[in-house]
Structure prediction request, 178 residues.
Amino acid sequence: MGVGDYSVYEPERDYPRRRRLKLPSQGNGFKKYHIGYTAGVFDLFHIGHLNLLRRSKEMCDYLIVGVVTDEQTLWMKGKKPYIPFEERMEIVRSCRYVDEVVEVPAQYPDIQDAYGIYHFDCQFSGNDHAEDPHWLAQQRYLRERGSELYFFPYTQGTSSTMLQEALKRESGNKGAEQ
Prediction:
């Protein structure tokens, strides 16, 4: 399985940016932001991921989605994703709400790094980070630069961690039955 083409953080790249551009949204007024950004591992893609991408696109004209590499995920979470990086990139790229997919490399994993490259109007995240002091500091950083960090309600009931735990339980039960 090959990957067609994907982007990597490019500090020299001048991303299109038209401040305060108002384009009609899906028939109900105007979108709040021009360029939006969100990032994640997107392992075992599920309804929570889809909700994040859909809600993000509803609020911006152009949505850039960063996918975290296998190496960075291993460093952050202590385990590699089930789905290889290239496949996760393709899965996210295939979502109709996504305009551009980029790699989040290990050397540039932070919100400030992404903002320095893409100069987005808003970064979107789930509210599972809304009380985290690090994320609140990132929100202040963005606001000082005229950008925003917006937290959506976290989708309850499904997460990649829950799916991984269910897979482990299921594979453990099959081993016990044999």
